[in-house]
Specification:
The protein is of the alpha/beta class. About 40% of the residues lie in helices and about 20% in strands. The chain is built from 14 helices and 13 strands. The strands form 3 sheets. It has a 7-stranded parallel β-sheet with strand order 5-6-7-8-9-10-11. The protein has a 3-stranded antiparallel β-sheet with strand order 1-2-3. A 3-stranded antiparallel β-sheet has the order 4-13-12, covered by helices on one side. Helix 1 crosses helix 3, helix 2 packs antiparallel against helix 3 and helix 6 runs parallel beside helix 7.
Length: about 375
């Protein structure tokens, strides 16, 4: 059997340049987290061009600014322009995982910025080969994804009214409630009021973004379970893996890790500690599609499920997630890819398609998305 060889020069499609633009897109309503409230979404749009003129698109977004992971779109823009772009130019776009590993080894941290660059490389590779990205990832296991709608931390009557409207329209059949912005007792009472108003019409999860300590979580998780909550996301601070493990052993509801999970090594630590039932996977926080695949492989080996999370992406980032998550085996916990629905406008000619609470896998080469330059110009930061 002949030895494998590296690609010949004719098989290489080199990256010629990266171009970046900063956008600000308003939301249809404020989105409240435990410590901040979003009114607009900043987007770092990345255009990758190969020497043959193939264009791939990526984006860098963070949920509500640097509070979540330390990155901002402004910081990402500077990092891409001055460091990631020089490391990317001249690399082979047909080997996006090799590029991702190169950036990971040469730039510590900055996963959201690295993910945007790698995303553009996957898109360009698919376009160059004339195939959708999910085929480059091994093929789709499904052609649509269930989408949970994340409700903000507003008062119970406001949240319940929004949930009832979405149920009546048939747009979503499951919800995740934000918590942590109020004292625990009041917060749990609010969730109970929302659950009572819904009357069991839809599954409910909650997301604390690490707002509770172990004592508070042990005290109030049973009350959340009694209210009908089936999943609690990141109840404890990100670094408290031991606390998560103790809590999971006692918890009447499933525990999902989000802020505690960024790298494949984090996934291994969580699995070894038996600290979570579900892992929230996101392209941005792990540094790209390639890294998320490694996280999912750890989850599958450990018998853990995955949940496809969001950082409030446009249709571009949402399509990238759709291709990745449709090609990911351990994803029975569903997704939260509602980003384009929370944005008041989009930056593509044809936004991703939702049907009856599910996101359809986009067709076409790359991510199957066409950027609308008029929309980009409208929202570009001056």
């Amino acid at each position: 059997m002949p030895e494998p060889t590296c690609p010949k020069s004719a098989d290489v499609l080199r990256i010629a340049c990266l171009r970046i633009r900063l956008l600000d897109i308003p939301l249809v309503r404020p989105h409240k987290f435990s410590v901040t409230t979003m009114h607009t979404q900043g987007v770092l749009l990345i255009e990758l061009v190969t020497e043959d003129g193939i264009v791939g698109w990526g984006e860098g977004v963070v949920p509500g600014g640097p509070w979540w992971g330390g990155e901002s779109v402004e910081g990402m823009a500077a990092l891409v322009e001055h460091h990631l772009a020089p490391l990317t130019v001249g690399q082979d776009v047909l080997r996006p995982e090799v590029l991702a590993r190169r950036l990971e080894s040469l730039v510590a941290g900055a996963p959201f910025a690295r993910a945007g660059v790698e995303m553009a490389a996957w898109d360009a590779a698919g376009r160059a080969l004339g195939v959708p990205v999910h085929q480059l990832l091994g093929g789709a296991h499904r052609d649509r994804l269930p989408v949970t709608w994340a409700l903000g931390a507003e008062p119970a009557d406001v949240v319940a009214q929004e949930a009832h409207s979405l149920l009546a329209e048939g747009r979503h059949g499951s919800f995740k409630l934000k918590m942590g912005a109020a004292p625990a007792e009041a917060d749990v009472a609010r969730v109970r009021a929302i659950a009572d108003a819904l009357g069991g019409a839809a599954p409910l999860a909650v997301d604390l973004n690490g707002a509770w300590d172990s004592h508070t979580a042990r005290r109030w998780l049973p009350a959340l379970a009694d209210a009908g909550v089936h999943l609690v996301e990141q109840p404890l601070p990100a670094a408290d893996i031991a606390g998560l493990a103790r809590l999971r052993a006692q918890s009447p509801v499933a525990i999902m890790a989000d802020e505690s999970l960024r790298t494949p090594a984090d996934a291994l630590r969580l699995a070894a500690a038996h600290a979570a039932d579900v892992l929230a996977i996101k392209i941005g926080k792990s540094g790209g599609l390639s890294a998320v695949r490694r996280v999912a492989a750890v989850a599958e080996a450990a018998g853990m499920d995955c949940y496809g999370g969001t950082a409030i992406e446009t249709s571009l980032g949402t399509a990238a997630s759709a291709h990745l998550f449709c090609a990911t085996t351990p994803l029975d916990a569903g997704t939260e890819l509602f980003g384009p629905l929370l944005l008041d406008d989009d930056i593509v000619t044809e936004p991703v398609t939702y049907q009856a609470g599910q996101l359809l896998l986009p067709a076409g080469p790359g991510f199957g998305i066409t950027i609308d330059e008029n929309k980009v110009a409208k929202y570009e930061r001056r």
